[in-house]
Amino acid sequence: MHDMSASASLATAHLVTLAEVDQNKVTPGILGFLVFAALALAVWGLMKSMNKHMGKVDFEEAPDPEADTPRKTSSTAESSGGAGASGKPAGPKRS
Asked: CB under 8 Å to 89, separation ≥6 — which residues?
Protein backbone atom coordinates (compact mmCIF):
# COMPACT_ATOMS: atom_id res chain seq x y z
CA MET A 1 0.00 0.00 0.00
CA HIS A 2 2.90 2.33 0.59
CA ASP A 3 3.85 2.12 -3.09
CA MET A 4 0.32 3.16 -4.10
CA SER A 5 0.42 6.38 -2.11
CA ALA A 6 3.87 7.22 -3.52
CA SER A 7 2.63 6.91 -7.09
CA ALA A 8 -0.49 8.92 -6.23
CA SER A 9 1.61 11.72 -4.74
CA LEU A 10 3.90 11.63 -7.78
CA ALA A 11 0.91 11.92 -10.10
CA THR A 12 -0.49 14.77 -8.02
CA ALA A 13 2.86 16.55 -8.13
CA HIS A 14 2.98 16.11 -11.90
CA LEU A 15 -0.53 17.57 -12.29
CA VAL A 16 0.40 20.52 -10.10
CA THR A 17 3.30 21.36 -12.40
CA LEU A 18 0.95 21.18 -15.39
CA ALA A 19 -1.52 23.48 -13.65
CA GLU A 20 1.05 26.21 -13.06
CA VAL A 21 0.43 29.13 -15.38
CA ASP A 22 3.26 30.83 -17.21
CA GLN A 23 2.55 34.58 -17.03
CA ASN A 24 4.59 35.22 -20.21
CA LYS A 25 2.47 32.87 -22.31
CA VAL A 26 -0.70 34.22 -23.94
CA THR A 27 -3.49 31.74 -24.72
CA PRO A 28 -7.09 32.26 -25.81
CA GLY A 29 -8.40 30.17 -22.94
CA ILE A 30 -11.90 28.86 -22.51
CA LEU A 31 -13.53 32.15 -23.50
CA GLY A 32 -11.75 32.10 -26.87
CA PHE A 33 -12.85 28.52 -27.43
CA LEU A 34 -16.47 29.34 -26.58
CA VAL A 35 -16.52 32.35 -28.92
CA PHE A 36 -15.00 30.28 -31.73
CA ALA A 37 -17.50 27.46 -31.14
CA ALA A 38 -20.41 29.93 -31.17
CA LEU A 39 -19.20 31.44 -34.45
CA ALA A 40 -18.76 27.99 -35.99
CA LEU A 41 -22.31 27.00 -34.98
CA ALA A 42 -23.69 30.27 -36.37
CA VAL A 43 -21.96 29.75 -39.73
CA TRP A 44 -23.16 26.15 -39.88
CA GLY A 45 -26.74 27.26 -39.18
CA LEU A 46 -26.58 30.00 -41.80
CA MET A 47 -25.20 27.60 -44.44
CA LYS A 48 -27.94 25.07 -43.66
CA SER A 49 -30.61 27.76 -43.93
CA MET A 50 -29.13 29.07 -47.19
CA ASN A 51 -29.16 25.59 -48.73
CA LYS A 52 -32.81 25.15 -47.73
CA HIS A 53 -33.81 28.49 -49.25
CA MET A 54 -31.78 27.91 -52.43
CA GLY A 55 -33.60 24.60 -52.89
CA LYS A 56 -36.91 26.48 -52.97
CA VAL A 57 -35.79 28.81 -55.77
CA ASP A 58 -37.49 28.10 -59.09
CA PHE A 59 -35.76 30.37 -61.55
CA GLU A 60 -36.72 30.41 -65.20
CA GLU A 61 -34.95 32.92 -67.39
CA ALA A 62 -37.18 35.09 -69.56
CA PRO A 63 -36.53 34.73 -73.29
CA ASP A 64 -34.33 37.41 -74.83
CA PRO A 65 -36.55 39.67 -76.99
CA GLU A 66 -33.62 40.49 -79.31
CA ALA A 67 -33.05 36.82 -80.12
CA ASP A 68 -36.43 36.49 -81.88
CA THR A 69 -35.98 39.44 -84.24
CA PRO A 70 -34.52 38.60 -87.67
CA ARG A 71 -31.24 40.14 -88.68
CA LYS A 72 -31.38 43.23 -90.89
CA THR A 73 -28.72 42.37 -93.46
CA SER A 74 -26.72 39.31 -94.26
CA SER A 75 -23.42 41.21 -93.99
CA THR A 76 -23.94 41.82 -90.27
CA ALA A 77 -24.90 38.17 -89.76
CA GLU A 78 -21.78 36.94 -91.51
CA SER A 79 -19.51 39.32 -89.67
CA SER A 80 -20.92 38.27 -86.29
CA GLY A 81 -20.32 34.60 -87.09
CA GLY A 82 -23.98 33.67 -86.55
CA ALA A 83 -26.14 32.76 -89.52
CA GLY A 84 -25.07 32.71 -93.14
CA ALA A 85 -26.73 34.52 -96.07
CA SER A 86 -29.38 31.80 -96.27
CA GLY A 87 -30.39 32.32 -92.63
CA LYS A 88 -29.20 28.88 -91.57
CA PRO A 89 -26.53 28.57 -88.91
CA ALA A 90 -23.04 28.27 -90.31
CA GLY A 91 -21.71 24.73 -90.01
CA PRO A 92 -18.10 23.68 -89.51
CA LYS A 93 -15.82 24.61 -92.37
CA ARG A 94 -14.57 21.68 -94.37
CA SER A 95 -11.23 21.67 -96.10
From this structure: 82, 83
